[in-house]
């Protein structure tokens, strides 16, 4: 199975900060990576797929980059509604796997 | 509007069976894979497996192979996740999610159900 390691596990930030989350894959996955946002008590929400393609309806302050084994999710200007947990997922090969998540908290 | 509506919360005893459902609407159910994701209390997301309603082709994560069964009834646009003998460690929220292909056989999980909480306790 392909392992995904997200860092940091927790991130404390302020509104309007620029934040960058990282996801590293145990082997190359081309650009077959997605990012999801999950708020407490809610289902995950797709933000980005194919490493850098913004899902319809997702604000442009979210962006993704990377290929191979290293990927990043950047929130350019953190908004109050962005405090949540973020997960990466590889869809390069079965079984599909998720990273352990990064919780973005209010400083 | 695409919607996935899951069945309600369950409280079960160890050893009991369970079959939960996920009904799709607002899209051609037989044209998209649909799968299941587990979230244990306070933990992250775990992909369990998926199924293609058009022909019932099914894939499982090795972690869940033999532990659960994924099935579908395309006549009523509904996917299922079932257990024959629950354990306390099956206590979790289970989400269904549409796996939309965007290239080749690569997916994005673009629509999710609301989740079903399963509590297994004696």
Q: Give the overall average pLDDT of chain B.
A: 97
Shape summary of chain A: globular
Number of strands of chain B: 11
Radius of gyration from the alpha-carbon trace of chain B, in angstroms = 14 Å
Unreliable parts of chain B: none
Mean pLDDT of chain A: 97
Question: Which word captures the global form of chain B?
Answer: globular
Can you write the helix and strand succession of chain B as a string? EEEEEEEEEEE
How many helix segments of chain B? 0
Oligomer: heterodimer
| Structural class by helix and strand composition of chain B | mainly beta
Estimated share of beta-strand residues of chain A: over 45%
Q: Describe the biggest sheet of chain A?
A: 7 strands, mixed
Strand content of chain B: over 45%
The poorly predicted ranges of chain A are none
Major sheet characteristics of chain B: 7 strands, mixed
Distance between the termini of chain A: 36 Å
Q: How many strands appear in the DSSP assignment of chain A?
A: 11
Q: List the total number of helices of chain A.
A: 0
Structural class category of chain A: mainly beta
Textual characterization of the structure:
- The complex is a heterodimer of chains A (107) and B (122).
- Chain A is an all-beta fold and 107 residues long.
- Chain B is an all-beta fold and 122 residues long.
- In chain B, the strands form two sheets. In chain B, strands 2, 4, 5, 6, 9, 10 and 11 form a seven-stranded mixed beta sheet that branches. Chain B has a four-stranded antiparallel beta sheet with strand order 1-3-8-7, with no helix packed on it.
- The mean pLDDT of chain B is 97.
- Classes of the chains: A mainly beta (107), B mainly beta (122).
- Chains A and B meet through strand 4, strand 5 and strand 10 of A and strand 5, strand 9 and strand 10 of B.
